[in-house]
Each structure stands twice: as structure tokens, then as C-alpha cells.
Amino acid sequence: MTVFKNLRKRWRAGIVAVAAVGLGLSAVVYTQGASAATWPSATGTVKLTASKAVSGTLDGGLKRYVGSGALGGDSQEEGQDPLFVLADGAVLKNVIIGSPAADGVHCKGSCTIQNVWWENVGEDAATFKGGSSAKYTVTGGGAKSASDKVFQHNGGGTLTISSFDVSDFGKLYRSCGNCSTQYKRTVIVKNVTVAAPGKTLVGINTNFGDTATLSGITITGDSKKKISICDRFTGNKTGAEPTKTGSGPDGTFCKYTTANITYK
């Protein structure tokens, strides 16, 4: 049984070893409020001392990538460099991002992130920086130990997050509330498994026309429903703290119903 070093003590869950899955990898399942995903075991470790540029497709073969040297940060400090920089149209898949994770992955334009696992999120897991027509896809994989944001949307376009697992997090998704250049942003979150503790699934700026559509959301370990599903803000371009204006489904900006959220 593989036990990940970055599991936090407050995860009281028992750990049950399961048989090899998929590519024949051993894995562990976390229960009782921790992540319900089957996390893959790393096939090796790669240390990056500088951001790795990706154009085309990088298939990591489920190796664990970690930062070292100048990329050795695992804090929430702003301005860290990413481990991976994805060019417009690039694909990053079958990668485990360990700790230190620095600022994770940056997408310069449209990109695909497939079966990528963040064991301990640093500043952010991934940041999306494309223009207004960019399309970003995150499918499969998971993230845990994100004291703030998992996915940060600074550019424009549409981000689709599907079949993803998140646990022990601040926000799964945030449309930048105070970037100097603002956009209308769209996020689609579907078939995502969420494990408490966590604060917010989605945060959007209604004054810039953002929309969030959620479906097939399963939340575990949150019997008191403390995790907010969709928060609405008035964003700005000045760098000031954005103003929260509401939460919950409204049919216009936060598009979902109670039937789209399942608690276990």
C-alpha cells in the first residue's frame, strides 16, 4: 500500500488498500470524508529546476514531477513560477504533481489537462490565461491540500472540469476578481467528487457576465453543508478585494439546482 506523505493529520479516514487498476498500478482509497478517488502510484520522480514548456502532447507516464531549486516552493505565496507552461493547444496528461508544486500548470491558450493528479497544491493547481475564445479542458485526475484555489481563471474563454476529484481545499474554481484585464468567463463543472473540508466550489464575477453551470456534483463528509456551491462577486480591475454579492443558484449566473448536488 502506498501512503502519500502529504496527507494531513485531520484526515481521520481509514485507508484501505485496493487491487491494481487501469494500468496495473497500486492505489489507495480514502474514506470517511477524505478523498474517494483511486489515486495512482508514481512510476518515478522527475525534479524540475525551471518551468517545463509543453507544446503538442506531454504524456508523463504517471511520473511524479516536483519543483526543486528556484521551483522549490509549496506555499501560497503569489508570483511563483509554474512547473509546466502549456502553449496554445497543448495537452498534459498522465502526470502526478507532488510537493513542492510551486504554481502548478499555466495554460497560455486553449489546453487539455487529462488525468493529472496534484498531491499537495502549491499556489494554485492550474491557471488559465488564454483569450476570450480559449477553451480549456480538465478531465479526470484530482487535487488535494489546496489551502486556497485549485483552478484560477485569469484569462477569458471557457473552462470545463469533468470527472475530477477534489478534497481539503479552499476554492475549486475562481474567476479572477481583480485582474487588471477582465473577461466574461464561463465554467462548466460536471461529474465531480468533492470531499470536505472545503470552502467554495465556484466563485464568479456577475458584473463581467461570468456563468457557472454545475451538474453531477457529489459531496462527502459535509453533513452540515458548509461548502458553498457557487459564490457571486462584483469583480474589478484595480486589484482591490472583490465584493461578494450572493451565493446559490439563480438561474442566470449560477446555473444548477439542488438535484444537481448529492450529499453522502
UniProtKB/TrEMBL annotation:
Reaction catalysed by this enzyme: Eliminative cleavage of (1->4)-alpha-D-galacturonan to give oligosaccharides with 4-deoxy-alpha-D-galact-4-enuronosyl groups at their non-reducing ends
Top EC class of this enzyme: lyase
GO molecular function, one term: pectate lyase activity
Cofactor field: Ca(2+)
GO cellular component: extracellular region
First-listed, main subcellular location of the protein, grouped into a coarse class: secreted
InterPro entries to which the protein is assigned, alphabetical: Pectate_lyase_PlyH/PlyE-like, Pectin_lyas_fold, Pectin_lyase_fold/virulence
EC number assigned by the record: 4.2.2.2
Keyword Signal: yes
Annotated localization: Secreted
Keyword annotations: Calcium, Lyase, Secreted, Signal
GO biological process annotation, one example: pectin catabolic process
UniProt family annotation: Belongs to the polysaccharide lyase 3 family.
Protein role: Catalyzes the depolymerization of both polygalacturonate and pectins of methyl esterification degree from 22 to 89%, with an endo mode of action. In contrast to the majority of pectate lyases, displays high activity on highly methylated pectins.
Protein name in UniProt: Pectate lyase
UniProt source species: Actinoplanes lutulentus
